[in-house]
Design goal:
The structure is a homodimer of 208-residue chains. In chain A, helix 1 crosses helix 3 (43-50), helix 4 (53-74) crosses helix 6 and helix 5 runs antiparallel to helix 11. The first copy, chain A, is elongated and about 60 Å long. Chain A has helices spanning 4-25, 32-38, 43-50, 53-74, 81-99, 101-107, 115-119, 122-128, 130-141, 150-169, 178-194. Chain A has 208 residues and is mainly α. Residues 198-208 of chain A have low confidence and may be disordered. The interface between A and B is large, with 60 and 60 residues. Chain A binds a DNA duplex (30 and 30 nucleotides) through helix 1 and helix 3.
Chain lengths: 208, 208
Amino acid sequence: MGRPRHAERTARALLDAAERIVESEGLQALSVRRVADEAGTTTRAVYSLFGSKQGLVIALGTRAFELLGAAIAALPTTPDPAADLVEAGVTVFRRFAVEHPSLFRLAVQRTLTSPELAAQFDAAAADALAGLEARVARLAAAGLLGDRTIRDAVCQFHALCEGLAAVELRGLLHANQAERVWRDALGAIITGFAAVSAPAAATQVPQG
Amino acid sequence: MGRPRHAERTARALLDAAERIVESEGLQALSVRRVADEAGTTTRAVYSLFGSKQGLVIALGTRAFELLGAAIAALPTTPDPAADLVEAGVTVFRRFAVEHPSLFRLAVQRTLTSPELAAQFDAAAADALAGLEARVARLAAAGLLGDRTIRDAVCQFHALCEGLAAVELRGLLHANQAERVWRDALGAIITGFAAVSAPAAATQVPQG
DNA sequence: GAAGTAACGTAACGCTGTTACGCTCCCGGG
DNA sequence: CCCGGGAGCGTAACAGCGTTACGTTACTTC
């Protein structure tokens, strides 16, 4: 049935070309014809192997999440769970955003048109963030999470990392101070986590 | 010279149509032909009045920032600067993101292809965020900012708001708990601000 | 009222994602 | 060993996109 060997090679070539184009010129430079040209094939191959341009983009994003997840898993741990979490944010999130800005926008920020396309990333994202969740769980075990759910704290920490990355990619952080601002912000929210349930909000909502 | 009266009306009709389309179907549904059709004119008008599709999109984003800035300015203040800052995040940022998700993605998150197009928003964004900066300055005046710059704290707080909005728009926050998670996260980082310079990072960088 | 210029309708350009059609080559059953 | 069939994919076309050269129109100024 068919010629799967060659197809595998073609699919790899297409993905490699797509990654090269997106990383060097951004997602807007990615066209089916150009990917096919640079991979030495035709547009038809993209549709046979990936179904559509969206399929190719999803495959790219999945690859990006594999990179992210592997980077978190490879990070060493110390006896200090708070420092380890800061390290995960700065070394994994920030590093990935700075070194692969287009892939970051594509996969993490989901700079895509169609919303159901973005939903395709949910599974891959959850896998990649498992390592982050483990580090937050260590904070919880040390009693440094207040009365927050681990899930909530992961969301909040993740949100801060993603927002910092967005702000930095927009050029709002001075290059030589960016890492300090990151460490400072991540440290602040972790410090706040250790206090009991968001005192600043207490004057507004009596917390149900 | 020309017929400026009619032009002004046409420009307004085009902007209104564009806003309607983007808000109801997202940025990917916005095409020059369709905007022109719904405004009762032709594509040529867009190029005469806005220069290009980008010009129209920039005008839309500028309008979004005016809304945001006005919402911050209209917010009342209390004697508690920390609570006021939380309120700004939840009532202005979150509200805008939830009620106008497409405009939020367009203007704040800059879900756009071209990077120099996104830079057009910098001035409008700075204006809109002046009210936020004022509230952070009140925190600083109360001695609740540690040794942080106001500018840095604004960036960090803004990053957290933008990240929370991104996470919520992705559907990761349970609808009935979203506001609590927001208040909790904003409260945590503000609590952390009051502590002296990010203790969690102290074990990693000795702070130059 | 004459003149000139901004507004903008028409029709076309080249590009995009996508697909119907047909050839080609590999893999499994006889 | 070979041969039928289905997967890979080259060709050429489609509709729709942003953009623009050209013409016309109508308003504003002198």
